[in-house]
Fold each of these.
Amino acid sequence: MAVDPALVVSGAHVLGPLSVISALFLSLTSSAIWSRNVGETSCGWRVDYSPDGRAFGIWAVIYLWSLGSAIAQCTTLVIVLDWWTSASWSLTWVFCALWVPLFDAEYLGALRSALVQISLAAVFATVGAWDSRMWIADTPAQLAEQLAVGAPLTLLAGWLLAASSINVGIVWKAGRPDAVRTCIIVPRSAAKSETEAEYRARRRVIYREQYAKSPAVVSPVPLVLSAGVGGLALLIRDPLLPVPLMWAIVNLMAFPSVVYMCSLLLCACGSAAAAVRVFMF
């Protein structure tokens, strides 16, 4: 939406973007402090539809683009998202921040609480993406500007929907009476010179090697999730929403299987149908 000159003078137009920036740094701080066991927890209760570690590199794109969008909105150079959109975006980052220490704690009760947090984050991100109405524009230039500002919120929503499904599988797996950890515990090196960063890097390599040796199992979950996310994209008129899930699917060990190719097709159909709603109606 256009910025009211009176808001520019008072500075009130930057409160929404500033809240997003503050919550984003809260999430980053939480990850920096409490993410010691996040990888070990995911590995310990690995589900068949968990993507390769490289898929999680999307977080860097989401964080950087979100920060750039919020900073740009603090100027008068681009549109400023609605108050409710910024509030939803901020709450999304807050719930992401709360998720980290709970998931890091590893025990079942904490994992269940973490599932609640990441599910709420997915809900608020999706509501924010819907409320942004970034696909409704009068000119191509306005559409491009709105996409540049609002797209990272949609990508965050799509990725959190995929991540929530993984968290559901982890909670279900960890809560089974016959639950058995699927990942070894990597002890610290006897050498006192090994730093925390070096230990995490060594552990990450061991986990990736173990993941590469594990059997490729095709899960029906991505197919079901693709149908749901594709339908949601059509409902909120956002063709970008299924993109993060598609990224996760192509990084699954069993890709390209027939099930996973069908999952991609469902996502693509959802995006196409959403685009038709945007540009034709």
Amino acid sequence: MPCQSSKKKQKHQPTQARTVLGDITNLPYNTKRCVNGDLSAGQSIKRPSDALQARSTALAPTQSPGAAGLSDRPVAPLLPQALIASEVTTQTPAESSGPEHVQDASDQTTPQECDEYELEIVACLFAEETLHIPRPDYMASQAELNGNLRAILVDWLVEVHSKYKLRRKVLYLTASLIDRYLALEPVARKRLQLVGVACMLIAAKFEEINPPLAADFAYITDKAYTKEEVLGMESTIFAALFFSIVVPTQADFLDYLLKADQGLVEKHKELVNYLVELALVDIRMIRHAPSKLVSAALLLSNEIMGRPAWLDRMAQISRYSEMDLRGCAEELRGLLRADRSSTLLAIRDKYTLQRPCSIARLPQVLAA
């Protein structure tokens, strides 16, 4: 008798339409800000504020014109025990190059950590990260776009990312795809949101097991675009980037460097994530390599949380000295201060309401 799964494949099926770039939860505005899409019954409804209305219309487009399998491979014979011992003892710390091997308890229980290949993987990430950074002044070649419109788009995509509970890598890969595509092709303002959702669709397909569908991304824009338009833009982006999609991003260095800075508590890790996500919104920060942004965020968070800023061990692992990171860290400090009065609320709300640590409310962070 054939084996059948009792669980049906779950699909993302939003239930209500919403205003473009408005309430990402698809629920009415209420007296309390919606958290995780939950809204208790009986709460009074109010109209969106002027700030949110301005934010919702900033990117509003005009009306849309239309609707492995594993191959069998021979197993390599085991090396003699004597040869293994000789290979291990021939290399001394002074002779080793590249980042230090970093290990914790999770490496032994999570096969996806690929602990035995960590040094090779990290070395490859450091070697390739600068090859895919778009030119920092690419926005000057866009006739209808500017850094503020990009910031609004990325802030909205942070909410979409939280709405669908996607992996962290999806958000950073989405931002990378947007910048790399805009650096190559001129885009009309009314098509910018389409580029954003198409890039997130691509990133989700690469990083998620069960990603949202193209129809879901068409819906989340209040059906300003059709599913066919989303898929068409997806094909256009693939062709423009020559199918070079997955590149090193901040997410690839976060776990490695957080694990390297031993003794971090959960609040400290959340602060690093908060700082790195703030850098996504500001177009000026794309000139920094992903590893440098993560290292600078870690250095600044150490200072804010009262830890030694940058130990020699961290300089060796990250390949950046404290002097190399100081300028980038001060830029991140400026973003942290500016976020308190910013009209772009997605990241601040994410780290104030939806995170158990409420890192954005900590006295140390507010005093930074």
